[in-house]
């Protein structure tokens, strides 16, 4: 067994294999982004941000492995998207800034991250966040590999029969 010590200058790709419930540290680097399975990300405040397209609206989304939710979008997008039902309040959240309401509605259309499409997903909305958030309910069917040195992430959807 090899043990790696990671530093900011020598980061190795790390895979979060949600279906297999394991973390893998790899050697090498991810290939250049193809906007299908490998997408570029930015890390302006230490969190990976990717482009998310909801219907015809593109926004920035945080890949948040600490979020127990699915798709959470800024409430400002609520009126810009075709919804399959009226939003309903499903919960409340709290940050250091105070409390906020979480609303939920199905999208009449699809969300896309790279080449991965999510048809008619149920989306949550909150007015506290400037970026969308993609959480563990979405990641449950993916193996994500983060190449922080090159600011790339590979998203591999694992078919249910392989899990």
What does this structure look like?
- The relative contact order is 0.26.
- The chain is an all-beta fold.
- It contains one helix and 14 strands.
- The strands form two sheets. It has a nine-stranded mixed sheet with strand order 7-8-11-6-12-5-4-9-10.
Strand and helix layout:
Blueprint: E1 14-17, E2 22-25, E3 38-40, E4 49-54, E5 57-63, E6 71-74, E7 88-95, E8 98-106, E9 110-113, E10 116-119, E11 122-126, E12 132-134, H1 136-139, E13 142-147, E14 152-157
Parallel strand pairs: 5-12, 6-11
Antiparallel strand pairs: 1-2, 1-13, 3-14, 4-5, 4-9, 6-12, 7-8, 8-11, 9-10, 13-14
In short:
This protein has 163 residues and is mainly β. Helices cover 2% and strands 45% of the residues.
**What is the share of helical residues?**
under 10%
Q: What assembly state would you assign to the polypeptide chains in this entry?
A: single chain
Rg on CA atoms, Å: 17 Å
Number of helices: 1
**Strand line-up across the major sheet:** 7-8-11-6-12-5-4-9-10
Name the helix and strand elements from N-terminus to C-terminus, one letter apiece. Answer: EEEEEEEEEEEEHEE
Mean pLDDT: 90
Give the low-pLDDT segments: 1-9
Structure keywords:
about 160 residues, mainly beta, 9-stranded mixed sheet, 5-stranded antiparallel sheet, 1 helix, about 0% helix, about 45% strand, globular
């Amino acid at each position: 067994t090899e043990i790696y010590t990671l530093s900011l200058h020598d980061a190795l790709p790390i895979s979060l294999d949600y279906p297999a419930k394991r973390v893998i540290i790899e050697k090498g680097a991810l290939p250049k982004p193809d906007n299908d399975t490998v997408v570029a990300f930015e890390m302006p405040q230490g969190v990976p941000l990717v482009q998310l397209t909801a219907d015809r609206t593109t926004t920035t989304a945080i890949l948040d492995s600490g979020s127990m939710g699915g798709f959470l979008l800024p409430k400002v997008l609520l009126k810009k998207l075709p919804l399959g039902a009226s939003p309903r309040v499903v919960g409340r959240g709290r940050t250091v800034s105070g409390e906020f309401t979480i609303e939920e509605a199905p999208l009449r259309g699809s969300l896309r991250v790279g080449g991965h499409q999510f048809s008619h997903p149920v989306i949550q909305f909150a007015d506290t966040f400037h970026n969308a958030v993609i959480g563990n309910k979405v990641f449950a069917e993916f193996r994500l590999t983060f190449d922080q040195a090159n600011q790339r992430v590979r998203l591999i959807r694992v078919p249910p029969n392989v899990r």
